[in-house]
Amino acid sequence: MHGAGHILEVFYLILAAQVMAFLFKRLNQPVVIGEVLAGILVGPALLGWVHEGEILEFIAELGAIFLLFMVGLETRLRDILAVGKEAFLVAVLGVAFPFLGGYLFGLQIGFATLPSLFLGTALVATSVGITARVLQELGVLSRPYARIILGAAVIDDVLGLIVLAVVNGVAKTGQVETGAILQLILLSVAFVGLAVALSPLFARLPLEKLPVGSPVGFALALGIGMAALAASIGLAPIVGAFLGGMLLSEVREKYRLEEPVFAIESFLAPLFFAMVGVRLELAALISPATLVAGTVVTVIAILGKVLGGFLGSLTQGVRSALTVGVGMAPRGEVGLIVAALGLAAGAVNEEEYAIVLFMVVFTTLFAPFALKPLIAWTEKGLRQAKE
């Protein structure tokens, strides 16, 4: 009956996510918000029908992998490289501003140095899955501002990983392990560089002649393989999945890869967002101290990314730059992982963990609500510029 219980939990998640997605479509709101709220509804916070567990976590991670693989399929490398300078600036500034803001605020309210460092680190990495879903839903993945967000998210993940490695090393050993960090940087750069170097080869690759069952089967194996490779060097699996999809973007139409991959993503991605809701411990957010400190940290988290995104992509115009900044705002599961690592290492306590949790909840909910009208405003400006 153990397997039957997990199947029932998946059923609850799918049903709740689909019903909430329908309601949010009717309300003309981002579907992803409905899917996150569906997880809160059926999770421990309310009905208690679904609980965290290894199997559901794995299925949810597959959802994130296929979402970013699908986004990668729709994103050509040359389009990312065309906005490479802006993407790099957005990533660097979007890491520096929130980290400094979080660290200094932690010191200001009486945290010790190490908890303050973990607080700053939790504000660093963008959870691009939330933003990617909104961009996909609105059909604007081909826009320059969307490509800047996606490119910056890859660089952001590498930078965030380096910051986390430094802070985690300090928490465990009391010193910065330069050799391990240098190795991490070299592996990350080599991984991304390899994907870029292989892109022209994949554009000419005759998939029908490979010793595989079908081109779609090869595409799925590549996406999962790249995600696994990214995870093995410490990067987020979704970065590998995105790069894998991008490798096949030039041949997606020739081999009709989008429709079957989209079918899988349409099933798994809502489970990922619903599990974001299941993980949220809402009871931890009700203490007055958490509410006040969490609100300030959330403002720092949002303003840091918006300012970094805006300044880094101002060459694209004010509207597009604001869209980039807001698109980089959600922290999602990335912030939770950082906070959980700090808790496990004894570097943060339950109160400090709850503050990060508060920030994660509200940046996750803020971005889709803010992005939809902002993208409409940006698109209107782009149309007016053409006329």
From TrEMBL:
Top-level taxon: Bacteria
- Report if keyword Electron transport is assigned: no
Q: Which UniProt keywords apply?
A: Antiport, Ion transport, Membrane, Sodium, Sodium transport, Transmembrane, Transmembrane helix, Transport
**Residues passing through the membrane, by range:** 6-24, 31-49, 55-75, 87-111, 148-168, 180-203, 215-248, 260-278, 285-304, 353-371
Domain spans labelled Cation/H+ exchanger transmembrane:
15-377
UniProt-listed InterPro entries: Cation/H_exchanger_TM (IPR006153), Na+/solute_symporter_sf (IPR038770)
Indicate how the chain sits in the lipid bilayer.
Multi-pass membrane protein
Pfam families according to UniProt: Na_H_Exchanger
Primary subcellular site in the record, as a coarse category:
membrane
Location(s), subcellular: Membrane
Its name, as the record gives it, is Cation:proton antiporter
In which organism is this protein found?
Thermus antranikianii
